């Protein structure tokens, strides 16, 4: 468990790998990984003494004290209004922004398929299912989300860019924004690890992650 308080958010457009980065941060630094949908609802429900969230991997809602470090991925906050709502719950110490080229994002999203019942995600280029078109564990059909289809991806990325710009500017003005650019999560990760290591002691080395 990390001994120093830290509250961090990983921001990035759809397909940027923010969930993967946040999971690695949680594992390497002993932070609680909070998911997107439940975060605000459970935080508000938790009241003044605690924040509540749902960890990755299908964990049940779990309360934890505000003195415990945490990190979360950036489907929230994705608008200025959401960032202001988050301010009323907890003060962020660190914001990591992932800058991935448009063509890379388009390729990742357009080749992404999911298993609806579990949420398992496959990518036909670098994480394909064992049998094309079906889930590895259940054998059930995979589907492509409507907004992952090639004709929808460009509009989706433009929408994110427009909404996220004031959020990024807000955190930049506070001096807590750190941006990382690249096309592969594995190449971005060592720089993120080095940044976090300067803030809190890791519980795993970079090689162990």
CATH first level: Alpha Beta
Distance between the termini: 15 Å
* Assigned CATH superfamily: P-loop containing nucleotide triphosphate hydrolases
Q: Approximately what portion of the residues adopt beta-strand conformation?
A: 15-25%
CATH topology: Rossmann fold
Structural class, please? alpha/beta
Please count the helical segments: 6
Q: Which whole number gives the mean pLDDT?
A: 78
Low-confidence stretches: 46-74
- Reading the helices and strands in chain order gives EHEHEEEHEHEEHEH
Question: Which radius of gyration do the C-alpha atoms yield?
Answer: 17 Å
Shape: globular
**Count of distinct structural domains:** 1
**Major sheet: arrangement of strands:** 2-5-1-6-9
Beta-strand segment tally: 9
- Helix content estimate: 25-40%
- Give a quick account of the main beta sheet: strands, pairing sense, barrel closure: 5 strands, parallel
Q: What CATH architecture would you give?
A: 3-Layer(aba) Sandwich
